[in-house]
Design brief:
EC number: 6.1.1.2
Protein name: tryptophan--tRNA ligase
Structural class: mainly alpha
Pfam family, one: tRNA-synt_1b
Keywords: Aminoacyl-tRNA synthetase, ATP-binding, Ligase, Nucleotide-binding, Protein biosynthesis
Helix content: 55-70%
GO biological process, one term: mitochondrial tryptophanyl-tRNA aminoacylation
Shape: globular
Strand order of the largest sheet: 1-2
Number of domains: 2
């Protein structure tokens, strides 16, 4: 949600990919791709954003905290980021999502969006459940 220098962004993508591979993820056994190259993520985020009300997004604690750290000038990208997260989950019809405690409210938003979509257009998206790790 914050502008990045293109060269830094490209290097971050390579570094993240290297870290994923170094952790033992085997690209012969799983699909590894750059999400930003899949236009359906942004397309579904737009559709879901048209079904999501602004007051709900304004109540999310992450919006409040980050907006405060940006001198009360939060961007539209920051506000709608949870809708993009919902699109990332729902696009693949995920049924279970590993999340940390700080992301539970965002997953609840994804659940609410899925239910709203299904009620309006018929059963299409599974309502994803959280998988919380125990530390």
């Amino acid at each position: 949600t914050m502008p990045k220098e293109p060269a830094v962004l490209r290097q971050n993508i390579l570094d993240t990919t290297a870290a994923i591979l170094a952790c033992g993820i085997d690209p012969k056994k799983c699909l590894l791709f750059r999400q930003s190259l899949v236009p359906e993520h942004a397309e579904l985020a737009w559709i879901l954003g048209c079904l999501t009300n602004v007051p709900r997004l304004l109540r999310l604690p992450q919006w409040k905290m980050k907006r405060a750290s940006q001198n009360s000038e939060g961007t539209v990208g920051l506000l709608t980021y949870p809708v993009l997260q919902a699109a990332d989950i729902l696009l693949y019809k995920s049924t279970h999502v590993p999340v940390g405690e700080d992301q539970v409210l965002h997953l609840e938003l994804a659940q609410d969006i899925a239910q709203h979509f299904n009620k309006k257009y018929g059963e299409f998206f599974p309502v994803p459940r959280a998988i919380l790790s125990e530390l």
